[in-house]
Design goal:
about 130 residues, alpha/beta, 2,3-Dihydroxybiphenyl 1,2-Dioxygenase, domain 1, four-stranded mixed β-sheet, 8 strands, about 15% helix, globular
Length: about 130
């Protein structure tokens, strides 16, 4: 099987609130819009907020979105200015990543991650 592309599709309980969160509070750039949804760029992936196919109730989402940022401190300041509640302040994890937790209007967990310069993910393994 060849996977050519991928995206996360969210079917929120309140489409307009979730659209505003990803567009305005997080400031994600729009990849495309269609009559019943909006697709956002999210680094090497896409996040689609769909107004169709949902039940109108908050979804039972047991995973989390992982979004890498350049600077976790800058991200925290931007989110605070946008009025986004920070569920867990930035901190260094035992695996050496800097992580901060927020949630979208339906409670979907979002992990914002800074990969420090000295972290193995940043090293050239060649």
């Amino acid at each position: 099987m060849d996977i050519l592309s991928s995206r996360v599709i969210l079917r929120p309980g309140d489409y307009q609130a979730t659209l505003a969160f990803y567009r305005d509070a997080l400031g994600l750039a729009i990849a495309r819009e269609y009559p019943a949804g909006t697709v956002f760029f999210a680094g090497q992936s896409l996040i689609e907020v769909a107004a169709h196919g949902g039940s109108g109730e908050p979804p039972a989402f047991t995973g989390a979105l992982w979004l890498q940022v350049r600077d976790i401190g800058d991200a925290a300041a931007e989110l605070a200015l946008a009025g986004v509640r920070i569920d867990r302040e930035p901190r260094r994890e035992p695996w050496a990543l800097l992580e901060m937790w927020i949630a979208d209007p339906d409670g979907v967990p979002i992990v914002l991650v800074e990969v420090p310069a000295e972290h193995p993910l940043r090293r050239d393994s060649r």
